[in-house]
């Protein structure tokens, strides 16, 4: 009984606990996301189905103390709270990012519950088509650009269009092949360096010119290895980008820079 109560969805202590008509309690955000993704008002535990969206009220007695924590590098602040807590979701309708507390209304209200929530992003305007003001959700392979549904029906009509998720999957496969080749190139150059270093041990004292050439070759190879390792790190970082939209934006930008250079 002394152990803190936990939500059976996130398996963590309750954040804004909300009790359903069936009596089961969950974090408001957890059950709100569950309903949003499954598109049915059902208890995640007992599977009881509710004909209409239940009005969820949070139990503040179970609410843990939520002190404002300084934001770390890369974290996005909530656009509403004065304390500037870390945002956990971004809304493409409100064009704002919210912390757990200020996201509650999107899970409590049926109207706000229809809004499109995405993983928190730093620059929301980058997720919206600048021409039509709609969410970027497709990729034009003909023009190698991100487009919205309106673009697909107008400027990019009859183009080769694919979903963002589908295109991201294809490009990640391509990047993994490129990464494998990079790693092989690094290993080949490292082997060359080792062979040259071994040959230095067998050079006579009078072969100063040969030793000097070998050292220059080692230096050049090490510089090439350093550059390959940098590119390999950038590929690794890009491959670990979870948001498909952001992944494609970075991918297209990198590819255009390489073509320009």
From TrEMBL:
Name the Pfam families on file.
TRIM_CC (PF25600), zf-RING_UBOX (PF13445)
Please indicate if the UniProt record lists Metal-binding as a keyword.
yes
Question: Signal peptide: which range, if any?
Answer: none
List where this protein forms a coiled coil. 172-238
* GO MF annotation terms: zinc ion binding
Instruction: Name the UniProt key words of this record, in alphabetical order.
Output: Coiled coil, Metal-binding, Zinc, Zinc-finger
Alphabetized InterPro entries for the sequence: E3_ubiq-ligase_TRIM/RNF, TRIM8/14/16/25/29/45/65_CC, Znf-RING_euk, Znf_B-box, Znf_RING, Znf_RING/FYVE/PHD, Znf_RING_CS
Q: Give every B box-type domain span.
A: 124-164
Q: Mind telling me which PANTHER family this protein's record contains? A: B-BOX DOMAIN CONTAINING (PTHR25465), BLOODTHIRSTY-RELATED GENE FAMILY, MEMBER 16 ISOFORM X1-RELATED (PTHR25465:SF32)
Protein name from the UniProt record: Uncharacterized protein
Organism of origin is Anabas testudineus (Climbing perch)
Q: What is the lineage of its organism?
A: Eukaryota, Metazoa, Chordata, Craniata, Vertebrata
